[in-house]
Amino acid sequence: MIHARGLTRTFKVKKETVEAVRGIDLDVEAGQLLAFLGPNGAGKSTTLRMLTTLLPPTSGTATVAGHDVATDPAGVRSRIGYVGQRSSAGEDFLVRDELVTQGRCYGLPVREATARADELLDLLDMRPLAKRRPGTLSGGQRRRLDIALGLVHRPDLLFLDEPSTGLDPKSRAEIWQHILRLRETYGTTLFLTTHYLEEADSMAERVVIIDNGRIIADGTPEQLKNDLAGDRITLSTSTEEEARRAAAMGGGTAEGTTVRLRVANAPAALPECLRTLDGAGIKVTTAETARPTLDDVFLALTGRSLTDDDIPA
């Protein structure tokens, strides 16, 4: 569905050449739900724009849905949908008319465009919104309309750039319900960016992390967390000196009386850890375990957090 080799994009900034994307290799098979993650300025949006033909690559090649992004951009656009961060709906049409017009722009006959609009209104639970104008919709309702507009021509592949940004938790959950329904109904391949790491962790079957224009991790959420981060044990001791001793024994870190340790299997490791510390005369006052997050994966890879910047880029 997506095959990219050496995909690179450079920009001129004050007469200097800056590489926003540095030789990306990426393969995405049909039917996957892939989350593309990275901090601000990592190259997420630039990569997305190249794959959707909105920005030409400086070098490298990419075929998307069977068409080359450089030599056949029209072919790519005919097979993909794209939902950007900003609303794509106008303000002058009613919701149903907006969908019909989008279908006509893709060359659908009036009867087919109308039938497709009605199908999407039902699929995304928008039938009660059909005669309203986009400006009167809530944030979650507008995102559903954006997704519907991206699906009018029945694309094989849908790109979603921060589909739930700015929505309240209830609206975010509803958007994800509809996104997942797309896979069940059509088998659509979904390629999305998000800065809500818990969404990628729980919803995506594959996560690709980009930093400084290069892909630095690729796998299922569980694989990445197990291989690159590990479980966490957090202990409290009676004194700071005991915390430092405990951290040195376990290869962890100490901050005040708090000790943090990375282990392969925290529930299994905790009893042995407590026995060892007790044998060394270190009194543990509290202990808890936690599974790693995708932010822990990024921290392990780069030494900084994916959530340092809250604004998506």
Helix fraction by DSSP (H/I, runs of at least 4): 25-40%
Distance between the termini: 25 Å
CATH-defined fold name of the largest domain? Rossmann fold
Number of helices: 11
Q: Count of DSSP E strands?
A: 14
| Beta fraction | 25-35%
The tally of structural domains comes to 2
CATH superfamily of the largest domain: P-loop containing nucleotide triphosphate hydrolases
What's the oligomerization state? single chain
So what's the overall shape? elongated
| Cα-based radius of gyration, to the nearest Å | 24 Å
CATH architecture of the largest domain: 3-Layer(aba) Sandwich
Low-confidence stretches: none
Tell me the major beta sheet.
6 strands, mixed
Which secondary-structure class do the elements indicate? alpha/beta
How does this structure look, described?
- By secondary structure, the chain is an alpha/beta fold.
- The protein folds into 2 domains: 2-225, 3-Layer(aba) Sandwich (Rossmann fold), CATH 3.40.50.300; 231-291, Alpha-Beta Plaits.
- The chain is 38% helix and 28% strand.
- The protein is built from 11 helices and 14 strands.
- The strands form 3 sheets. Strands 6-7-8-3-9-10 form a 6-stranded mixed beta sheet, with helices on both faces. Strands 2-1-4-5 form a 4-stranded antiparallel beta sheet, with helices on one face.
- It is elongated and about 80 Å long.
- The model has no long low-confidence stretch (mean pLDDT 90).
